[in-house]
């Protein structure tokens, strides 16, 4: 994995910090809560292409494990048709650069990826633990780097996460 000290995507408006460098060293995987039907379609296509929201925002919405429960509570309360995807970020081919953003709400959605002098993948991380994966639309995340897990509702109506998402 490349880190913020490596050439960063030009014009992304990112902040490169020691915290992000440490995060990049530690991040091997990011998690994505997904609609089961969409995840099945991505699996059949052989690539994680992203949801409609991802396409609209220009990046794949993901989280560190510690943020997943908050994301589920904020955006997916009561939904029974979900799964959770573990994305092996460390396995992505080509250069992967990490950068920080002030918060998940303050990402401008812009990133230079895939061009000359730019990383193939840019992951913008927020302090809360949200990760925005930027790749060219013609270069989706290969499904071989994704593990899919069920995300059922418990008796209390709260999603039950796999043990390895802790």
UniProtKB/TrEMBL annotation:
SUPFAM superfamilies (UniProt xref): ADP-ribosylation
InterPro entries: DUF952
Record's protein name: DUF952 domain-containing protein
Organism encoding this protein: Phaeomonas parva
Lineage of the species this protein comes from: Eukaryota, Sar, Stramenopiles, Ochrophyta, Pinguiophyceae
